[in-house]
Amino acid sequence: MVGSGRYTGLWQSLRLSYQRFAGFARPDRRYFWLNVLAIVVAVVTNTAMIWLMGLPLSLVQLGDYDALLGVLAVFAVVLLINQAAQFTGGLLGNWLELRFIGRVRNALMTQLFSLSFPVAGKMARGDLLARLSNDVDRVSEIWVQARLMLVSHLLTLGLYVFMLFWIDAGLALVAMATLPLFVLHQRIFSRRKREAAEGFLHSNGELLACEEQGLANLRGTSANNAESPMAGLHRKMFDRAFRWGLRERGLEVGFEVSFILLIYLVGLLVVLFGVREVSSGSMMIGQLVSFLLYLGYLTVPVRGLADLGFQLAGNQPAAERINEVFDATPNVRDASGAMELSVSEGSIELDGVSFAYADGTPVLVDACVYINPGETVALVGPSGSGKSTLAALLLRFHDPLPGVCVSALSASAAAPTTPSTAAHAAASAATHTAASTASSSTHDKPPASVC
Q: Which of 17, 97, 132, 301 matches a 20 to 30 Å C-alpha distance to 74?
């Protein structure tokens, strides 16, 4: 029951991910179906080529040498069509994947730009870079590669199984009886793969964040003789990512090796029964060769479908990490009916402003400030006294507590609606040249005041 619940949760999360990312792939639907057509042509011609490879042996066994040249000519034509379809499908698949990646990355950057600085600042830049690159690539494997591979593998599986039963139904039943072993094999590895992928993605994001912050603060590290502690922290974080990465790759190797072992065991079983039928005269040598070729190539879709579930389990955490960014909401939202800020002179007034961060500790309490247009004012005080908070409020990275206001006043005062308009108002008040402080416009007004 627990295992069933895990798989239900996985497929539910995959379904939600497909719905979430559908819009990024929708503009290329016609090219997706063109790629599907190329896959169909490639699979059908592959099926024909395998049959044509066994046919000459049957003709030789029957002594019909005159038909060999015609069979080889047909094989050459089918081969050319097959290669053209595979080239077209491969090129289109890569093109679709790159376009999907570009749209997702652009949407992520747009979302990050739209978030107020405090929200975006909670996410380490190194971790954000990991989400923009590695995680987006993993999601493209779910949304582009997986869908195309699913079409290819299911169509190949269906055609090859049909050919196996058409050649010899009894021998085909022997091969099909082993399918539950492959299903069980995939289920055993998928859950462990998902856990290892989650651990690696998170630890790798933390490692990249540590490296980004370390590179950005090289001067501070050197000034404080902190080289050894920083190197030790980096080794510790790398070791954690290394353990998760090794576990994930170890599972991939174990999956491959054990899958190949199962394939060979099934092949040996089929060869045993097939040789008996050839020796009894109920099957021709060419038919047995074609049967074994279909069975051998059948491992490609069977292995692909098993690996598809395996990879989906490992890549789903990347989709969840990207959705964390998409689901983040800005700290500041415009009130309904808010007017665009119009700045002519750019005076600033804070009247009874209070503010506290998430922990509830008050930073500003009933603060009052008035700054004239063109006036230069320095805010001086100890660390934690609210200087940076006051600047952040002026830029509207935060809203003050309910019941108070931050206003950038002008000839036509209005509530700022975006950080950019608020920043423009603050710049107009605080960064006019020092010369303007001596101008007549300032002399006619009372000096700046702080309460």
A: 301
Q: What sign does the CA torsion over 426, 428, 431, 434 have?
A: negative
Query: Which among 52, 44, 124 has a CA at the least distance from the CA of 85?
Result: 44
**Secondary structure class of 66 (helix, strand, coil):** helix
CA distance 288 to 284: 6
* Alpha carbon distance 396, 55 (integer Å): 77
Average pLDDT over residues 74-85: 93
DSSP result, 203-249 = HHHHHHHHHHHHHHTHHHHHHTT-HHHHHHHHHHHHHHHHHHHHHHH
* Residues 85, 301: Cα–Cα separation, whole Å: 18
Q: How many CB atoms lie within 10 A of CB 287?
A: 23
> Cα 64 to chain center, whole Å?
57
Structure tokens at 372: 């004239």
- Enter the DSSP assignment of 446: P
Per-residue tokens: 276: 């008996």
Has residue 428 got a pLDDT over 70?
no
Model confidence over 128-184: pLDDT tens digits?
Answer: 778 888 888 888 887 888 888 889 989 998 998 898 888 888 888 887 777 777 777
Greater pLDDT, 72 or 344: 72
Q: Rounded to whole angstroms, how far apart are CA atoms 107 and 120?
A: 15
Q: Record the tokens describing residue 9, joined without a space.
A: 């949760």
Where helices occur in 226-366 by DSSP H, the ranges are: 227-280, 285-327
Neighbouring residues of 133: CB distance < 8 A, sequence distance ≥ 6: none
- Most confident residue range from 119-123, 187-191, 411-415: 187-191
Residue whose entry in the numeric block shows the structure tokens 């490296």 = 211
Task: Kindly state the tokens that stand for 34.
Answer: 């063109």
Q: What token pair was written down for 51?
A: 């049959």
328 vs 108: CA distance, rounded Å: 11
Q: Which residues, at least 6 apart from 400, have a Cβ–Cβ distance to it below 8 Å?
A: 353, 354, 355, 364, 393, 406
Which phi and psi angles does 177 have, rounded to 5°? -65, -15
> What is the distance in angstroms between the CA of the first residue and the CA of the last residue of the chain?
66
Q: Is the pLDDT of residue 28 over 80?
A: yes
pLDDT for res 310 = 67
Q: Please check whether residue 132 is in contact with residue 323, taking contact to mean a CB–CB distance below 8 angstroms.
A: no
Predicted TM-score of the model (pTM):
0.62
State the pLDDT at residue 161.
Answer: 87
* Among 451, 439, 433, residue whose Cα is nearest residue 376: 433
Which DSSP state fits 134?
I
For residues 295 and 164, the answer to whether their CB atoms sit within 8 Å is yes
